[in-house]
Amino acid sequence: MADLPAERATPAAPFEFTTVDLFGPYLVKDDIKKRASPSGEIRTFDFANYPYKRLREMQNQDRKLTKAEQQRFKEEAEMLKGLQHPNIVRFYDSWESVLRGKKCIVLVTELMTSGTLKTYLKRFKVMKPKVLRSWCRQILKGLHFLHTRTPPIIHRDLKCDNIFITGPTGSVKIGDLGLATLMRTSFAKSVIGTPEFMAPEMYEEHYDESVDVYAFGMCMLEMATSEYPYSECQNAAQIYRKVTSGIKPASFDKVNDPEIKEIIGCCIRQDKSQRLSIRDLLTHAFFGEDTGVRVELAEEDTGCQDCLALRIWVEEPKKLKGKHKDNEAIEFSYDLENDSAEEVASEMVKSGFFHESDAKVVGKSIRDRVTLIKKSRERRQQQLLQQQQGFDERRDSTLTSSTCSHLSSLGPGVAGLTGGGGGG
After folding, report:
1. Triad 233, 273, 391: Cα angle to 5°
2. Residue 226 — left, alpha, or beta (φ > 0 → left; ψ -120 to 50 → alpha)?
């Protein structure tokens, strides 16, 4: 994806706000009044360019912003105006105002008319795997766009409540980016986020883009189970204790699909260095564009360290030749040292399983799955190494403490001799 230009030109605003004022529940522009909804949102119509806009008020904190904070606010608002991506809700403008006697900040964004993932889950309860895969892929594309800006943009409050569905296409867009970003400027001393979706390091306020990976994992968990993460907890304090102790939500055990469960587990690890990156997730076979071919690990332990037992499913019958039946998997072995995905795919074509025109698709599917398995093994190896190092450190500490305690019991003379010194 292309980076933003070095000198970001402010796009021509389709809606000018120079004459906008807020009076009570009304937005007044060019003598046209529109009543606000109970939630504080105000819908307006731009007769010149036709797109609907969504306005939200954000209550400012009691204290005044410093000049540095005001400048940062303006810079970040300008930056947000320049963000355009098919999976990001457009941010148009923001300004300070006084509403009902209190200072507030008005945010103007693209209006999404088909609700959020949250409302979808409440209505339909069960999300089909194909829909989950497609929407998760779009969320990842939006996050990848944000994380590859210079400097990277972190959402910090990703959840199903602010992932919006577009009516005409059924695609999804990440929203409330302006709210999350500008709240961080205005409430710099506070922890901003939703406890159920907050990575443990957010409570320490030392974090990076991986907090969005964690939140994505929780979104995927809610999409897979239709259950809010940590709904078993009674309050934020209970959630905090579980999150910081590395205890997964109870709903995690309700995920039936082993592949989805593995992906979620890799996203919500307590140690951020052990989480998958957005790039890793986008190259994951599960989130690949629907090619009609799916490769999975058939057997974890084959008795050979460099050998994999793989299984390939063909979900599009047209890709099969007469030698293979529908709804049957093709099982094959793969040597990590000597085989290549392209060679294996070519052999399958020669053996009459696939048409030659599908060799590239099959080869890519095999390569993506093998790459993922390798990375998973490397992460497990690293975890085992860290666990062993932790065990060794605890053992050495215990031995040292035990030795010192034993020497102390023998008397000060012996302790002084072993300490390498005495007075002379």
Report:
1. 85
2. left
106 Cα distance to chain centroid: 27
What is the dihedral sign for C-alpha 132, 137, 143, 146? negative
- Contacts (Cβ under 8 Å, ≥6 apart) of 74: none
Q: Which has the closest alpha carbon to 197: 157, 238, 251?
A: 157
Across 37-41, 155-159, 415-419, least confident range: 37-41
Report how far apart, in Å, the C-alpha atoms of 308 and of each of 211, 296, 347 are.
Answer: 33, 10, 17
Please confirm, yes or no, whether 176 is among the known catalytic residues.
Answer: yes
What angle, rounded to 10 degrees, do the helices at 67-81 and 177-186 form?
170
Does pLDDT of 226 surpass 90? yes
Cis peptide leading into 151, omega within 30 of 0?
A: yes
How high is the mean pLDDT of the chain?
A: 76
130-151 pLDDT tens trace: 899 999 999 999 999 999 988 8
What whole-number distance in Å separates Cα of residue 66 and Cα of residue 63? 9
Mean pLDDT calculated for residue range 231-241: 95
Q: Which of 93, 157, 176, 212 is catalytic?
A: 176
Alpha helices in 82-225 (DSSP H): 117-124, 129-147, 177-186, 210-225
Q: Which tokens in the block code for residue 258?
A: 């082993």
Q: What is the pLDDT of residues 37-46, one digit of tens each?
A: 444 444 444 4
Closest CA to 174 of 80, 243, 281: 80
